[in-house]
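Slide 14.
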Amino acid sequence: MTRPFNFSAGPANLPEEVLQQAAGEMLDWHGSGMSVMEMSHRGKEFISIYEAAEADFRELMAIPSNFKILFMQGGGLAENAIVPLNLSRGRSADFVVTGSWSDKSQKEARKYCDVRIAASNADNGHTLLPSPSSWALRQDAAYVHLCTNETINGVEFQSLPDLKALGSDAPLVIDFSSHVASRPVDWSRVGLAFGGAQKNLGPAGVTLVVIREDLLGHALPICPSAFDYKTVADNQSMYNTPPTYAIYIAGLTFQWLKRQKEGDASGIAAMEKRNLAKAEMLYKAIDASQFYLNKIGKDCRSRMNVPFFLRDESRNEAFLAGARSRGLLQLKGHKSVGGMRASIYNAMPMAGVQALVAYMREFEQKHA
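Slide 15: predicted structure.
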């Protein structure tokens, strides 16, 4: 039986191979007599799972050796507090606000440091991205925060800014929650990256933090010990009990990603090719229609989260009901923007996008 196609923005669909492997190992992991859920995080069995996951993620993302990989908890929302607690050093931080998530980030950071909005696209309804050349960056900023893919609004930075070329020596902090592992990262331009796993890497519960080593050890005195990046790094992410099962599933997903091939490309390069093809197919269908509308500038459209609207919104419920009946799930847009949203993360196969496009055309022909 074919599973429905789940277009949820997160927690999102996981590769079927990963789910099947986890199901097969549920009661007894590799002859240990235990489920991963039951293992001590300090036992040799789980340590082997953790070490493999860390190594696979470093290899997949081509993370340099001078960066630490941390497996934390709390999701992106918690990192909105944890980052300024660790990096602000009692100084200021610059934020580029490009949608709902970066706006949440700057509001949370105000509790711990002086925040300045270096740029914003609020005046165009978060549909275009402000050019880095227009950003008003401060010389004394402790870091610059960027959400590189806005899950709700559907805008994505297609490349990372070079802060040094903009006259700033501050480290760049990126929230890459909703497009991590969908494309390569230029680590020469990044000081810290964080992302919840529940969109592209695994289930809810584990947050990946990749931090340059020189940024460790500067936490404010009020920073809880479990959120001090240096403490977490010094204890191999096990200062407190980590989210063991979520790390295990993420590890299986990393292995799945490593197996992916697309022409002569493999791993992340293969996923980028596949994601470009999926996004192109869906945007092309929307743009060719007089029935649907995407409002995002074509040079900054997200490959992962595609918001679209029916020009006659009185047909929204009928559209969603018809989609559900065809096994196309979770297409309702975020409550703050309305409309529809198709999240087409790594685990969404091309067949899912093809099925969605076919349904959209059928619905248009019936109701136009």
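Speaker note: The chain has a mean pLDDT of 97.
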